[in-house]
Amino acid sequence: MTRGKQKIEAQKKNAEKNQKSKGSQFEARAVALKVSCPICKAQLANQNQLNDHYSSKHPKEKAPAESS
Fold it and tell me: Where are the domains of the chain?
């Protein structure tokens, strides 16, 4: 069992370790959004969302084929 200064230092260390990172999530968003609409430049997560986007936003256009 720790006492005194050791206990306080251990508590601070655990608090820092368990604290969630704050700040922007631009990096995580950039990783998740991999497909973009060539017409309006909207970023989407996958090909299915791109197909849905085309059917609702660009109904006269044909959705591009999957590029992978």
Answer: 27-62
